[in-house]
Each structure stands twice: as C-alpha cells, then as structure tokens.
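Recall from the previous chapter that SMILES is a line notation for molecules. Here it describes flavin-adenine dinucleotide.
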Amino acid sequence: MSGILAITEVKESSFRKASFEVVSEAVRCAQKLGTEATAVVIGSNVESIANDLGKYGVKNIVVVDDSKLENAYTQPLAEAIEQIIKAKGSDYIFFPATLQGKALSAITAARFQRAAVSDCTETLCDNGELSLKRPVYAGKAIETVKPVQKPAFVSLRPNVFPAEETTVEAQVEKMDVTFSEKAFQIKIVNVEKAEEQKLDLTEASVIVSGGRGMKGPEHFHLIEELASTLGGVNGASRAVVDAGWRPHKEQVGQTGKTVSPQLYVACGISGAIQHLAGMRTSKVIVAINKDKEAPIFQVADYGIVGDVFEVLPVMIEEGKKLN
Amino acid sequence: MKIIVCVKQVPDTATKIKVGTDAKTIDSSGIEYVISPYDELAVEHAVQIKENNDDIEIVAVTMGTTDSDKILRHALAMGADRGILIESDVNCDSFCTAQALANAIKEENADLVLCGVKAVDDDCSQVGGILATLLDMPFIWSAAELDYEENKVTAQNELAGETYTIECELPCLVSIQKGSIEARINSLISIRKARKKEVQNVSPTLSDAVIQTEKLELPAAKVGGRIVGEGPEAVTELFKLLREESKVL
Ligand SMILES: Cc1cc2nc3c(=O)[nH]c(=O)nc-3n(C[C@H](O)[C@H](O)[C@H](O)COP(=O)(O)OP(=O)(O)OC[C@H]3O[C@@H](n4cnc5c(N)ncnc54)[C@H](O)[C@@H]3O)c2cc1C
Ligand SMILES: Nc1ncnc2c1ncn2[C@@H]1O[C@H](COP(=O)(O)O)[C@@H](O)[C@H]1O
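With both inputs in hand, we obtain:
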C-alpha cells in the first residue's frame, strides 16, 4: 500500500488540535489521489486515544506505544516514523507545522535524503501528484512547490485546514519499532508549567494583540480580558516586547510567531510590514486604532477608528454577552 | 572547542517583495540583504559562550552569492574568528543546502553547530534538522535560551505555556529562536577588525533538487475590508458582523 501517512502530535495522552487537521486533510488528499490515508500515533500510553481519530474519517491507524517514549525528545519519533514509512511504502507524509512538527519533519525527511515542504496552506492534487502552496518572505509572497521524489514530506500550517468530522470504523494496528541508543542522547530534564494553561499562539483560533497604543504594561489586562472572553489568547507587537511590557513568546510577526487564527484583533498596533507578515493569513482581521491612516486598516476586514481605552471595555462587555 | 554558526543573507525585513520575470523567484533589484535575524542571535549565543569560556573558536559559514561576504563580515565583527563562504548562485532547496553545508564543514569536526530556527526568506525551518542528521548529531530545535558548561549544552524552549529544559552532551546542533538575549551592535573598531579576519571561499557540492518551485506570486489583496465606525458606538455593529457575516464568533 502506498498512500499518505498523517503524523499526529500527542501531549500528555491527548492530541494537539493540529493533529486532527492533518488527519482530515490527509483523508481529503488521499481521496483525490485515489489512495488511502493512515494516521500515525506515537508515544507512551497512547493506544487508548488512537481510536478517537476515526472521527476524522481515517480508516487506518498505526500506533507505536512504547514506555521508552515517556518524556522522550524528538529523535526517537523520527526513527519510529522511518520504520513505518518503510513498512507501508508511503508516498506522502504529512506533519502538523507546529515547532515540533517542523523539526520532526526535517530530521525524518533527512533520513530519506529529503527536505520537507514546510508550513503549507493549500494542497493541490493534479494527475495523482501533489503540489503545495506556502507563504514565503513571512507571507509577503506565496510559492507553489512540488516535491519531485517520493517519499515526500509535507507540513501543514495549523488552523488553516478544517478538521471535518465523519465517523468511520477505524482499524488500529499496533506496530513495534526499534530505537537506537543514540535516539535518547537529548534529555528533557525539566518541564515547568505556567500557572495558567493557555493554547500556544500558533494553535489559537482567536488572538487579541496589543501594541504600543496600549500605552503601558498596566493596561494589558484589557487585552487579556478580551482574549479570554472570546475564548482566545493574547499576543503582542514587537514594540511592546522590546519595551519589556510583554514576554517575547507573545510576539507576532516576522521575528515572532506566524499565526493564522479565525479571528485576529489588533489593538493599538500600527501594522508595520513585519507585524503584518506574521498575521495576514488570519481568516478575519479586526483593527482598533485611533489613527484612521494606520496601515493595519489596509489588511483589516473590519476596523474601528477609536481609542482603545474607550473601545476595549465595550468589546469586553459585548464579548461576555456571547457566553 | 569549536562552534560553527550557519548564517544566511535574506532581504531586509522591511523589503516589499516583487516577483521576478521568471515568476519563480523574487526580483532582487534594489533589495538590501542582511543577516537573517535568528542567525544573528545564533552568532550572539556563540560569542557569549566564547566570552565566558577559554579556547573557543567560532567559524561562521554561509552558502550564497559572493556578496554574502557582507553578512560573514557582520558575524566576524560580532566576534566570530573566521568565515567560510560556499559560493553559489543557485537557489536550491533545504536538502541541497544542508548537504552543501555538511560537506563544507564535516572536516571542521565542530563540537557545537548553531543555526537559526528559520531563515526569514524561505521560512522553511528545515536546514538545521537536516544538517544535524547529515552530520550525525543530535538536534535541539527552537532554543530560546542556551547555556554551555563542560562539554554539555542546556537549552530552554517555551511551548504552549510550558518551559522545557533540555540537555545534551556535545557534539550537537541547536537551532536558535528569540529569547532573552539581543544581538550586539557592532562598533566601528570591530567592523574594521573584521575586515582583516580570514574568509575562505569554497565551491559547493550540489545534490539533485528534491523540491521544485513552480510559481511565486503575491498574496491576493484584501478586498471588502471596511471601517465599521468610530469609537465605542461601533462595537455592537462589529460584533454583529463577526457573528452574522464572517461567522467567526
Ligand atoms: C528586523 C525587524 C524585525 C521585526 N519583527 C517584528 C515582528 O516580528 N513583529 C512586530 O510586531 N514588529 C516587528 N518589527 C517592528 C516593526 O517594524 C514595528 O516597529 C512594530 O511592529 C511597531 O509596533 P506597534 O504597532 O505596537 O507600535 P507603533 O508602530 O508605535 O504603533 C502604535 C499604534 O497605536 C496607535 N495608537 C496610539 N494610541 C492609541 C490609542 N489610545 N488607541 C488606539 N490606537 C492608538 C497609533 O495610532 C499607532 O498606529 C521588526 C522590525 C525589524 C527592523
Ligand atoms: N544558505 C545558507 N547558508 C548558511 N546557513 C543556512 C543557509 N540556509 C539556511 N541556513 C541555516 O539554516 C537555518 C534554517 O533555514 P531554513 O531551513 O531555510 O529556514 C538558518 O537560520 C541558517 O542558520
């Protein structure tokens, strides 16, 4: 069997959301290419969750459940995937384009003398072959590329591909793989949890970001409050990260995170080219800025010209009514 | 100990991108090239390790056109000791790039190789992982913080609200993302000194392409964007549009 492998990402015995998108897109592409999709679940204590993937229309699920993978880093995953690809003779391997997914796709592809096509936002099936569209220059341009050798490796940008639910009866196949000693050279020695568990910016479906127009770190509770009433997370422009108002992990843009949420709300952000680069593929963009000439309005679907300190409290009230 | 830092020249991040006549690559006329920001941070990490330890040599490596000499000099001014320029005009894919880099640095027997988490032109995040595999080194990805002590590196990486601390004995390859450190600003004296440092020009060994570019285009311009209104009075209308027109709430 050739076909498409959809690699999922598991964290503490549950799937990261991007996994469902990858499985769902693999099922759609397999249909168009006239082949089959197989989901891959690798980890320790993962067998029990594997069946959940049937919800996304995938009929075949390969599970590698090995206690050695408890707290393991990325390398053993690549070794496992290599063995699955060889066993299945797969043509395409899809990964979620999370930070881990991109790293894993690189070290797995390299084992086959390949590179992965990273962070794709569209798949095109033509004559039984796949081409992919992906943003380059941080979204200032879009390239269409084609992997010319099989197996081919692809990662899909989170939040872009729909995770469609169609229940099928999935067959779960357990597979044993071997790991080299070298695979465990890197050790995760500590994992520190934030007090409050938030989705990563790259996975969030709603993001509310604040910029220099927020005037100071003491006002970012407005951004956080609006984000949480809308069920999202908060982000920031580089100007406020550089000023030390917000941690760098919140930075959106060319030298921060690239995000594609369903809804992006930019508050007091001018819309510099490097910021736009990180968020312009968002489905819907809302901008609140007191300067009606601010460049952010050129990419916004909806804009409000106004003072964030007047507009945000009303938005928070309105947001609360939704729940 | 020897540290190799892989640096790439990319269009300045403020550049407006124009598509070239081949409809596959950008029109490079008038573009100012700079060192990719994450690669600059990787150089900074290397230089800080050198400042805090004895007997460290830093080699900056790039593959690119002859004018990539400029970003090598930038790395040298920051504190790298010498440079290697793999001269190539060909736009090649991540595998081909990693292969050429691997061939050029294999003989150096580096203890630590640093890359940026991504080059901000092709945004692939591939070369680091592939290079690590080709050099048979373990790969730590996306380190925001990096410490070196007695033949071991400790990296930190923040993911979905959790901070991971990762350890590895050398040799190993680490890709660098933004963390608490900033790249230093080069003084005139350091720039002058860098001119005298050694840069070795080598020719690449290019493998076959594994990914082919078919087309490069600009993203569709936003149509139908509009100002909903002014001030807090516009909020009700905004929420109505988000619910009913774009259906994102
Ligand atoms: C190499 C490089 C990389 C970069 N990478 C990034 C990146 O990854 N991400 C990023 O964001 N930037 C990046 N930048 C920086 C970028 O160029 C801008 O400087 C930055 O995005 C500006 O942030 P800002 O919009 O918050 O601030 P400003 O540009 O100062 O804009 C503030 C805005 O707030 C509005 N405002 C002020 N007061 C109010 C109020 N009371 N109510 C409503 N609106 C108000 C103003 O009208 C203005 O439009 C990069 C720059 C370089 C050189
Ligand atoms: N042509 C190149 N020369 C030197 N280093 C490179 C080159 N291309 C990529 N790299 C390194 O690999 C990293 C990731 O690049 P990429 O996979 O293209 O996003 C960069 O940040 C550099 O450190």
